[in-house]
Amino acid sequence: MSTQSPPDLEPEALDLRSGIPEAPSHQRRHTLPASEFRCLTPEDAASVFEIEREAFISVLGICPLYLDEVKYFLTLCPELSLGWFQEGRLVAFIIGSLWDQERLTQESLTLHRPGGHTVHLHVLAVHHACQRQGKGSTLMWRYLHHLGSQPAVHRAVLMCEDRLVPFYQRFGFSLMGPCAITLGSLTFMELQCSTQGNGSLRRNSGC
């Protein structure tokens, strides 16, 4: 399931210089980059789930991915994820996996199919303190650009609530119709987007 909940915590500055001799005063002090985009790793799983739990459970009562599932995807296909870090703290992320069928099924929620050419976007989430700042949009443009640089990936698919369809259509996603997957009383729409040619995507990406 994918939903959009874009947002930014006030991160404390982290000091990586422990045990390193002081540099001469005329040299610039080494600090973490103010803003960084990178693929996630299993070590990021706890931070991912904390943001996800805040964004989804409090609103919908469910999570797109629970902690074990986050670790599973970040172990098998970290290259299909993207995290936005500010001063070393995760503020937004997307997690995807490969799928090998035209439409999503219940199995697609928990499986990675290495032979597939479709990326299933499981979740887009933004820290609650950073929402309504455009971070979700910026991250999505960068993620599609990232997928466009991977020749084996032909398209991206996702499922979302009706109210979020216009948000994803802004990025080139087209409506496929109702999704076959339901979660309790929740129903979803399924959308798809070609990733071919997105390797040079810059418009509205904030890149």
UniProtKB/TrEMBL annotation:
Location of this chain's protein in the cell: Cytoplasm
Question: EC number(s) on record?
Answer: 2.3.1.87
Domain N-acetyltransferase, chain residue ranges per copy = 35-194
Q: List the GO biological process terms.
A: circadian rhythm; melatonin biosynthetic process; response to light stimulus
Keywords, comma-separated and alphabetical: Acyltransferase, Biological rhythms, Cytoplasm, Melatonin biosynthesis, Phosphoprotein, Transferase
Taken from the UniProt entry, a GO cellular component term is: cytoplasm
Q: In which pathway does it act?
A: Aromatic compound metabolism; melatonin biosynthesis; melatonin from serotonin: step 1/2
Gene3D superfamilies (UniProt xref): 3.40.630.30
The question of whether Acyltransferase is a record keyword is answered with yes
Enzymatic reactions: a 2-arylethylamine + acetyl-CoA = an N-acetyl-2-arylethylamine + CoA + H(+)
Q: Which domain of life is it from?
A: Eukaryota
Tell me, what is one Gene Ontology molecular-function annotation carried by this entry? aralkylamine N-acetyltransferase activity
Q: Which CDD domains match?
A: NAT_SF
| PANTHER family, per the entry | SEROTONIN N-ACETYLTRANSFERASE
Q: What does this protein do?
A: Controls the night/day rhythm of melatonin production in the pineal gland. Catalyzes the N-acetylation of serotonin into N-acetylserotonin, the penultimate step in the synthesis of melatonin.
Protein family: Belongs to the acetyltransferase family. AANAT subfamily.
Q: What is this protein called?
A: Serotonin N-acetyltransferase
